[in-house]
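Table S2 (text version). Query chain:
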Amino acid sequence: MKKLFLIFTAILILIVTACNQETEQNNEKVVPVKVFTVKPDKIEKYVKSTGSITGEEDVVVYSKVTERIVNVYVKPGARVSKGQTIAVQYNAIFKQSVEAAETAVQSAQTQLNQAQQDFNRIQKLYDEKAISNQQFDQTKTQYESTGLGLQAAKVQLQQAKEQYENSFIKAPFSGIVASVYVEENQMVAAGLPVAQIINSNSMKAKVKIPSSEIVGIFKGQKVTIEFPSIPSKNYEGIVTEIDQAIDPISKNLQLEISITKPDNLLKSGMFGQFFIQTDVEENKIIIPESSIQSRTEVKVDRNTGLQNSVKKYFIFLIKNGIAELVEVKPGIKSDGRIEILSGLITGDTVVVIGQNIVKTGDKVKIID
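Corresponding structure-token output:
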């Protein structure tokens, strides 16, 4: 009986021990994580800015005379050539003025021709001493006055022609009609806007960057441009102008950027994001920026008692299924990626999701 009791007790101990071991195994923490395998890659550094684009040539055409609009020949979006008439003002009176001025010039020319003949005849008589000085001077004065009359008539004709021509409102260069501000039969005073024309074959933007970002900015620099209204396409540009002085109030520097290959999708006034490439690093250790963690350590100088804050950066590596916290030195940041200058090598496995819950020494399960 005693022997049976001892056997039963031994079996019970074995069962309890096995259950405890199984419970410990079940309670052991395994953290699911996503990882990134480190490999050499390229990273580009950008300075980002925003702004609106305009045509390299962007002009509002104004009326030069006060008259009623008779015809408007264009609509917004129309392509026009240099010198093309876009609108006409009532000009019948201007045309009559031109015709009257032309008649006046012809009359003045006839009078001058007659005065020339009279002067030549008097000149001959004067040389023969057949007339007095007074008669000669009177004829000469009349001849010169007739010449001045012809000049004045020609000036009047030129002015009449200019006024008539100004009633034809024309495009100053080839481009696209952005806006039309007048309607037919509308009375328009001189100096009022008629239409806006832009040269869509050449688009530009003026953007501002912080003075802290100006290192590495130069003319001819490559720019990538994104427009929220055209999400399916990026555009290329270059830096064409750089202001010589920083704005003393905003501490910003203004740049001019030209779009290299604009198309019909681009419109003057369109808002865009401009990414100016300032650096390119090849064959570098690049990881997702989200995988890196930072900590600020405060150290006290024993001699001065002053506190000094030091920011350090860490990532979690996976080695043999175990998480390990490793300090790294970051470099260039761009588009959610970051260069690692030290602390990682090619082939390392970095935690990119789950790094905020894993701890050093934790077992991990890598998930897709």
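Notes on Table S2: Confidence is low (pLDDT under 50) at residues 1-26. Residues 30-42+284-366 form a domain with the conserved putative lor/sdh protein from methanococcus maripaludis s2 fold fold (CATH 2.40.420.20).
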